[in-house]
Design brief:
With 355 residues, the chain is of the alpha/beta class. The chain contains 13 helices and eleven strands. The chain has helices spanning 3-31, 49-61, 64-71, 75-89, 105-125, 145-151, 156-162, 177-182, 219-227, 232-235, 276-279, 294-300, 332-349, and strands at 94-97, 100-103, 137-143, 166-172, 188-191, 200-215, 240-243, 269-273, 290-293, 306-310, 317-325. Strands 3, 4, 5, 6, 9, 10 and 11 form a seven-stranded mixed sheet that branches. The protein has a two-stranded antiparallel sheet with strand order 1-2. The protein has a two-stranded parallel sheet with strand order 7-8.
């Protein structure tokens, strides 16, 4: 058989395959349960992306005026969008309770799905891979002051150079840290505890030992110079400035090393504070000491005013972790932001122990 005849037969076979695939795809589309042959499917009528985005804003802010202000629309437009959504889902969605509009069960059930859809629409708008230089996001995060110094301030210039259109909004962490994450009031959290809820993911960012901070000329400085790294017993004779950074009533004791450095006699605790960075200011002209992460001390404290004493190898270490909720786990933009933070932090402090 001649080559032209063979080519025609091959092309005919390929055309038959293409026709079959097209027919099968059409049959699958015909079988789609929501497809309406006489117009748009029911699930796309009566709603649009702007209304869905407004749904997210109202869910987060709790009031129509604040949601409207956040989106730059009038209050009347906000009311029209809410009415459209209520008709579409046949549910009130938000009911007034005092000064706030509380989401109904139906609204809560739909929130994560709408958020995922918004991320999909954001991806569809792009025709190529994500570029960190053009990605535009506002990232809401919470951390304690030492984590802010280590994981945000120390890499902020490099991060903004890589991702100039990503805006960070940092707030003081508290005992509701993971509740806010699950309620989508936060995007990322920096923390040190374990035992996370199943819908929260995390990655270790850095590991650092603790050190003992004292004023210049403190008796512990002479002891460390003579005997080497300090043991817990060496600290017992001196009052402590205790940094209680995690006021969580479900987790005790709350202090560096999960209480390992707490004095046996609680009367030796001269001051309790949630602030790592300011604690050293309380040591001047006193015999108090404070236990802080070494990386924090090296980064933010003045060695001319404070002495940093090494603790024994038996002392625990601190591992700072980055956490996020399941709803953003597979979102490409969120993944890129997390990857940039991880790379910059580990470039500065090295890989965490055990990772």
């Amino acid at each position: 058989m001649s080559e032209p005849v063979l080519s025609r037969k091959r092309q005919g076979a390929q055309d038959a395959v293409d026709t079959l695939e097209t027919f099968e795809a059409f049959e699958a589309f015909e079988a789609f349960e929501a497809f309406d042959k006489h117009g748009l499917p029911a699930f796309v009528r009566g709603v649009d992306a702007e209304a869905l985005y407004f749904f997210l804003a109202l869910f987060r802010t709790g009031t129509l005026p604040r949601a409207a202000e956040q989106l730059g629309i009038s209050l009347s437009s906000a009311n029209r969008m809410l009415a459209k959504l209520r008709t579409y889902w046949d549910d009130p969605l938000f009911v007034r309770s005092g000064f706030l509009m509380q989401p109904t069960t139906a609204a809560k059930r739909r929130y994560d799905k709408v958020l995922s859809l918004m991320h999909v629409l954001e991806d569809l708008r792009r025709d190529d891979e994500l570029d960190p230089r053009t990605l535009s996001r506002t990232v809401r995060t919470a951390c304690y002051d030492n984590a802010f110094a280590l994981c945000i301030a120390s890499i902020f210039a490099d991060f903004t150079a890589r991702m100039p259109h990503v805006r960070l909004r940092a707030m003081q962490a508290d005992e509701h840290l993971f509740d806010y994450l699950r309620e989508d009031l936060l995007d990322l959290v920096f923390f040190a505890r374990q035992g996370l809820h199943p819908d929260v993911h995390s990655v270790a960012l850095l590991t650092t030992p603790y050190v003992c901070l004292v004023r210049r000329g403190h008796p512990l400085s002479e002891r460390a110079a003579t005997l080497g790294p300090l043991e817990r017993e060496d600290l017992e004779a001196f009052p402590q400035v205790l940094i209680n950074a995690q006021p969580d009533r479900y987790r005790a004791p709350n202090s560096p090393g999960n209480g390992r450095f707490n004095p046996k006699n609680p009367d030796r605790i001269a001051l309790v504070t949630p602030f790592f960075l300011a604690a050293s200011l309380c040591l001047e002209e006193t015999d108090c000491y404070a236990i802080v992460p070494k990386a924090t001390a090296e980064l933010a404290l003045d060695p001319r005013r404070t002495a940093m004493l090494q603790l024994s190898d038996a002392a625990p270490k601190l591992t700072v972790r980055l956490g996020w909720h399941e709803r953003t786990h597979a979102d490409p933009g969120s993944q890129l932001i997390r990857a940039q933070l991880l790379a910059l932090i580990q470039k500065r402090f090295g890989r965490p122990v055990g990772e």
